[in-house]
Design goal:
The protein is mainly β. It contains two helices and eight strands.
């Protein structure tokens, strides 16, 4: 079986493992969702924990062996003065003293895929905060042993 390069995450520290992961943007305000990667003879499956988003807020792209998953919500925070002026209208929108949920941030994870992945048949499902990507493998024909004649 071929493995995705960072399937060995438990055995390497984060810095070494990140060397194999592709980067597309500055990571200062971007969260990297946790991933589970599994494999069998016919496919890879990548599960990403991206809670609090709708499927419309998640973008998945594939180009030249790079699979990029992004999720982003628009910030709905107005400045303090606007909140004071619109105090009556705030019944529908909460004013937080503390807001630790990361839903306002951008999530991104990029993977460099092996050539055996059939990019035409990549599929995705999003359910209960888990994005599941199925990456089918190309059918590989077993090479027959060839006898070489000695001259």
């Amino acid at each position: 079986m071929n493995t995705i390069r960072f399937g060995l995450r438990p055995f390497f520290n984060e810095a070494l493992n990140d060397f194999f992961e592709t980067r597309t943007i500055d990571t200062a305000n971007v969260y990297k969702p946790a991933a589970n990667i599994s494999e069998d003879d016919k496919k890879y499956v990548i599960e990403l924990a991206i809670p609090g988003f709708t499927k419309e807020e998640i973008q998945i792209s594939y180009e030249k062996g790079n699979l990029v998953v992004q999720a982003c919500k628009e910030e709905k925070v107005s400045d303090a003065d606007d909140k004071k002026k619109d105090k009556q209208k705030e019944n529908a929108e909460r004013v937080y003293s503390c807001n630790e949920f990361a839903y306002k941030m951008k999530y991104e994870r990029a993977f460099m895929l092996p050539e055996i992945v059939n990019e035409e048949k990549i599929s995705a499902k999003y359910n209960n905060g888990i994005l599941e990507l199925t990456l089918p493998k190309h059918e590989v024909k077993a090479l027959e042993a060839k006898q070489i004649a000695i001259e």
